Amino acid sequence: MSVQHDRVAVEKYHGTGNDFIVVDAVESIPDRPAFATTHCDRETGVDHEESPRTGADGVLFLALEPMYSPPRVVMTLVQPDGSVAAMCGNGARVAAAWAAERTGSDELMIDTPAGTGRAGVDGDDVRIEMGVPSFAPRDVPLAREAERSEASEERAGAKRHASREAELIEEDVEGLTVTAVNTGVPHAVAFVDDVDDVDLEAVAPAVRHADVFPEGANVTLASRVDADDDSDVDSDAGPRFRQRTYERGVEGETRSCGTGAVAVAAVAKRLDLVTGEETITVSPPGGDLRITVPDGDSATLAGPAEREFAGELDTVVRST
Ligand SMILES: N[C@H](CCC[C@H](N)C(=O)O)C(=O)O
């Protein structure tokens, strides 16, 4: 019996500390979940002197379609647990940076299972359309008993049942007061006085797996930064929040989460913590992200996306 290693060219990128192995989808990787689980491991995974951290938050398989104008990229994110995420805000920004490098175009369309977003690249700064955040129970999704109000209108002999399921707004889920929103993936967002005062790794798993979230949820904490509390904050710069996210699929806290940052802004608006259409700054541990959530229109997410290194990894370890 011999063990065969095929090698594949990879790059590593990060967006505000949310880091990804990037593989061109033309490469043949027989087992994507096994590849992601092996190389994302924070202790034994991909390692390079140009990277501050071993392992990664996921693998982005990117299929470039350069014949379109603007060029398109089909993005598939395989997470460390082998699952595929429908959307990833920082991953989509990395996909745009990667495609801009190859095509020379500073405008790209990023196709994801959650929809398509237009991206704009300006040096290291990448902005992406994130779609309209939804609080609708079927979009999050939520598992709730339908509140059936029997409209009891008899029409053509058939009884019409109007059923309405309630959104989940500032409700207690496993001890945390959360609002549920889908920004491409589900987030349970809790506003707290100080994100650093919460033991996220202790409280998040029960919320992430709560019955009300049949597909699970990412758990995002947010706290407002007041200009008076922080001398670095420019009081004219618009609303600002700090963020921490425990991610489904990573099953731990990440340095940054783009869908989570958009979720913070969308929920802040929904709860009237912010008004108007101003750009909202959301700061996860890994940096600053700029968000807009215009009424009824696509949210946008902007911030740095940077390449760390290029290298090679084993595709899979096969026994023959
Ligand atoms: N880090 C990503 C989110 C990945 C989504 C994933 N954790 C899930 O919902 O399963 C972001 O920047 O939006």
From TrEMBL:
One family from Pfam that matches here is DAP_epimerase
Task: Fetch the SUPFAM superfamilies from UniProt.
Answer: Diaminopimelate epimerase-like
Q: What is its main location?
A: cytoplasm
Record keywords, A-Z: Amino-acid biosynthesis, Cytoplasm, Isomerase, Lysine biosynthesis
Q: In which pathway does it act?
A: Amino-acid biosynthesis; L-lysine biosynthesis via DAP pathway; DL-2,6-diaminopimelate from LL-2,6-diaminopimelate: step 1/1
Uppermost EC category: isomerase
Q: Where is this region: Disordered?
A: 143-165
Name of this protein: Diaminopimelate epimerase
